[in-house]
């Protein structure tokens, strides 16, 4: 259970989520009445769906089955309502029901960073950025060793165009979790949004390569390609795409087929035949 919790909260990486699922499944196999482990298992299944690692109805059903089992075992457990909050948010974008469940859990655990983070993330989706920032920052204060929460504070500041504060929190996230790509991705991008500096952005992605090694991360790869395009290094952009195993950059934020990028870059190069092909 503790290993599952460690990997479930460490990052948003699919590899971490899959390890967490295996650990939680082992926990409930050893003790089928372990309501807390069932609730946490539900959260990670919902996360798999949310981050587009598995957008199947079967994955959502697994999240629902796990939280229903937790509820049957202990309907008074706050973590059951936290899991229900994530299920409604991540599974169906049902903000009101998610907030209702988080509010129930918060009555008994007012300083739970997972609850405050969940409330803040929903508020951010609702466009309530200042309220979201307050809750996510509070969650980060309560869990100061969480690189994931530091990255989320930085992302919220980025959306508010407060780039100096965003930079500060992305640096903190990187120092806490130097092997997780997401904070590098956002830190690189704020230099484009803030200063129009592809040079600074490239330096951040290079730092990611030095700290992590080969990074086959869809956000990092796409940023690298776009930076090449912005600098007019079209052949470099095509080469980077060719080395990528992904057929599309598929996330909750965008869906960009690799073929579309090939066409657009060839169009910028004046290769009309290849653009239309």
TrEMBL record:
InterPro entries: TPR-like_helical_dom_sf, TPR_2, TPR_rpt
UniProtKB keywords: Repeat, TPR repeat
Protein name per the record: Uncharacterized protein
Native source organism of the sequence: marine sediment metagenome
Organismal lineage: unclassified sequences, metagenomes, ecological metagenomes
């Amino acid at each position: 259970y503790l290993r599952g919790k460690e990997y479930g909260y460490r990052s948003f990486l699919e590899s971490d989520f899959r390890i967490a699922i295996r650990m939680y499944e082992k926990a409930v196999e050893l003790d089928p009445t372990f309501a807390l482990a069932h609730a946490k298992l539900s959260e990670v299944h919902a996360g798999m769906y949310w981050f587009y690692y598995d957008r199947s109805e079967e994955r959502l059903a697994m999240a629902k089955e796990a939280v229903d089992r937790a509820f049957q075992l202990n309907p008074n457990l706050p973590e059951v309502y936290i899991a229900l909050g994530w299920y409604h948010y991540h599974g169906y974008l049902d903000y009101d029901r998610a907030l209702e469940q988080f509010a129930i859990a918060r009555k008994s655990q007012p300083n739970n960073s997972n609850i405050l983070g969940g409330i803040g993330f929903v508020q951010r989706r609702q466009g309530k950025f200042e309220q979201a920032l307050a809750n996510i920052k509070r969650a980060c204060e309560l869990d100061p060793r969480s690189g994931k929460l530091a990255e989320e504070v930085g992302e919220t500041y980025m959306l508010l165009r407060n780039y100096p504060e965003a930079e500060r929190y992305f640096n903190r996230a990187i120092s806490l979790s130097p092997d997780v790509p997401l904070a590098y991705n956002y830190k690189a991008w704020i230099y484009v949004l803030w200063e129009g500096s592809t040079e600074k952005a490239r330096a951040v992605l290079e730092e990611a390569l030095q700290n992590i090694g080969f990074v086959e991360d869809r956000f990092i790869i796409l940023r690298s390609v776009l930076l090449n395009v912005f600098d007019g290094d079209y052949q470099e952009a095509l080469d980077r795409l060719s080395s990528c195993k992904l057929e599309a950059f598929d996330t909750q934020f965008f869906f960009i087929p690799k073929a579309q990028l090939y066409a657009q870059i060839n169009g910028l190069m004046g290769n009309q035949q290849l653009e239309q092909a």
